[in-house]
Design a protein that fits this description.
alpha+beta; Pnp Oxidase, Chain A; UbiD C-terminal domain-like; 10-stranded antiparallel sheet; 4-stranded mixed sheet; 22 strands
């Protein structure tokens, strides 16, 4: 199903019993989050809050609350996109099976971003930060946050949409030292594309132009969280997954605007201008604390007619981002295994908050002329895993040799840990990496 807007997706979900409406006024301070959490816990439908206290805009959450609902939303394109990602990860497959992958090139070409005309829906009106739903999920949060943003930036050395980055990094809209309607806070961790773009802009002494898209067709937020293979842009992926090309234009100030978004916030980040951001109730089950993060000076806030604010609730797993992770795994399949020789499976354990704990299975190609069996090859695989994008933020990695138990399942947490504990030699198998890449959620200290 190719949705042209978030509204079209909501109508389709409601028609098929996947969405409920709450018509009564609901308080964005804690109440909306509490309702969301209870509905998600029971694997309930998406929720449209029609009457948000203090705002003229309705809000929707839990769109991706179950994997089945995500599959329903993308029921017409999921298999096609899985093939596109597969061939991008391993182009030689096209040579080995030319007929099987004959349509992949056409899929990619038909999904390329396209410039929008004069009648872009987002041009309908303008508003202010204070008029948006001021949603606070947890009592000690530093203020209202945008929890489902698509943050767009371009490379100062290679400007243009095909070299741009679209990521999901939380945005603090108020509280702390932010000047309401003029300033908001950007929060991003290490290994994010926006960090590369800001570094390049800083080197040139230029402000970084940032566009924050909220809402729009459901393929857009999925694209913002996807770990895509090199050469496949988030905007092209959004076009393929949504069966509708990503439409955009540049406003009078040179900011890229998503034509189909419900809201677009534009602004600039100047070199080394930071303000305290947080606290924020995070996905590890505790608050990430207040830290200095980039300050974004707001230029404009655009919205479409009948705009709907999209949000989620972040907290101790499982949450809606758990279902996001399941959808990502559904799409990417064995992409990581193709990149790392000898790797058979890896699981970022959701119950631990995804980043902290990894399980992996690799091939230990034992030396046949030596009787002693000891970990060798899987140490190489482990190092490769810990150097891979966001996997480098892991605190613990348990890796086992497939040869020891070909039926070992990384998704069976109890069974996997039992397998490890039955075989581990703590004098040989325990390895520490100190003073290495961590994120700001790490409060475990630096004593080691």
């Amino acid at each position: 199903m190719g949705y042209s807007s978030l509204q079209a997706c909501i109508a389709d979900l409601e028609k098929h019993g996947h969405l409920i409406r709450i018509k009564h006024e609901v308080d964005p301070y804690l109440q909306m989050a509490a309702i969301h959490l209870r509905v998600f816990e029971h694997e309930g439908p998406a929720i449209l809050f029609e009457n948000v206290k203090g705002s003229k805009f309705p809000a929707v959450s839990n769109l991706f609350g179950t994997l089945d609902r995500s599959k329903f939303i993308f029921r017409d394109t999921l298999e096609k996109v899985k093939t596109l990602v597969d061939i991008k990860n391993d182009p030689l497959k096209a040579l080995k099976n030319p007929f099987k992958y004959a349509n992949v090139g056409l899929t990619a070409l038909s999904a390329l971003p396209m410039k929008s005309g004069m009648n872009a829906p987002i041009k309908f009106g303008r508003t202010q930060i204070s008029e948006l739903p001021q949603i606070v999920n947890w009592p000690k949060d530093g203020g209202p946050f945008v929890t489902m943003p698509q943050v767009y930036t371009e490379d100062a050395d290679k400007p243009g949409i095909m070299n741009a980055n679209l990521g999901m990094y939380r945005i603090q809209m108020g509280g702390n030292e932010y000047v309401m309607n003029s300033e908001i806070g950007l929060h991003y961790q290490l290994h994010r594309g926006i960090g590369v773009h800001q570094t390049k802009a800083n080197a040139k002494g230029q402000p970084l132009k940032v566009s924050i898209f909220i809402g729009g067709p459901p393929s857009h937020p999925v694209a913002a969280v996807m770990p895509l293979p090199e050469g496949l842009s988030e905007m092209t992926f959004a076009g393929a997954l949504g069966n509708r090309r990503f439409r955009y234009y540049y406003d009078a100030e040179g900011f890229c605007i998503s034509a189909d978004a419900d809201f677009v916030i534009t602004g600039t980040v100047y070199p080394h201008e930071n303000k305290p951001e947080g606290p924020f109730g995070d996905h590890l089950g505790y608050y990430s604390l207040t830290h200095p993060f980039p300050l974004m000076k707001v230029h404009n806030v655009y919205h479409r007619k009948d705009a709907i604010w999209s949000f989620t609730v972040v907290g101790r797993p499982p949450q809606e981002d758990t279902s996001f992770g399941a959808l990502i795994h559904e799409i990417t399949g064995s992409a990581l295994q193709q990149e790392i020789p000898g790797l058979h499976a890896v699981n970022a354990v959701d119950a631990a908050g995804v980043h902290p704990l990894l399980f992996a299975i690799g091939s230990e190609r034992y030396t046949p002329y030596i009787k002693e069996r000891k970990p060798q090859e899987i140490l190489t695989i482990a190092n490769h895993i810990l150097g891979k994008n966001q996997l480098s933020l892991a605190k613990y990695l348990f890796i086992a040799a497939k040869e020891d138990d070909p039926k070992l399942d990384i998704n069976d947490i109890g069974g996997f840990l039992k397998h490890i504990l039955q075989r581990v030699d703590l004098t040989r198998d325990l390895h520490f990496y100190t003073k290495t890449t961590i994120d700001t959620l790490d409060y475990s200290g630096s004593g080691l």
